[in-house]
């Protein structure tokens, strides 16, 4: 399995724009990890989480449009998976603002999102994008 904090070519979906966006998400998770390790304050961590929430939403929208163009048969299920994750990211962002134990929560958020992203790309995105492209 690829490193959880770095992009790996095994995560290529075959759709350049989606792959570029996935790479940016990995870079943002690395920024969160680095901010945590250096001990940046709440405002820096919150800013990274805000950017991560916004970009995740942007990416999901682009990916769903791509799947729709390919005529993906399970688009609604894919959208539901995305919405569940986005809700979780927003919840984490709210908890980060409200907690005094930011250090352990940032570590939890980073680990959860890195694991989710790798699993989602390998088990959902690659089959969906490659399968849909073959069918189009």
How would you explain this protein's 3D organization?
The structure is a single chain. Helix 2 runs parallel beside helix 4 (about 100-135) and helix 3 runs antiparallel to helix 4. The chain is built from 4 helices and no strands. The chain has helices at about 15-40, 40-70, 75-100, 100-135. The relative contact order is 0.18. With about 140 residues, it is an all-alpha fold. The mean pLDDT is about 85.
Q: State the helix count.
A: 4
User: What is the CATH level 1 assignment?
Assistant: Mainly Alpha
Shape: elongated
Radius of gyration (CA) equals: 15 Å
Q: What's the CATH H-level homologous superfamily? A: Hemerythrin-like
Can you tell me the CATH architecture? Up-down Bundle
Distance between the termini: 30 Å
CATH third-tier fold name: Four Helix Bundle (Hemerythrin (Met), subunit A)
Counted up, domains total 1
List the helices and strands and how they pair.
Blueprint: H1 16-38, H2 42-70, H3 75-98, H4 102-135
Helix pairs in contact: 1-2, 1-4, 2-3, 2-4, 3-4
Summarize the structure.
The protein is mostly helical.
Task: Tag the structure with descriptive keywords.
mainly alpha, Four Helix Bundle (Hemerythrin (Met), subunit A), 136 residues
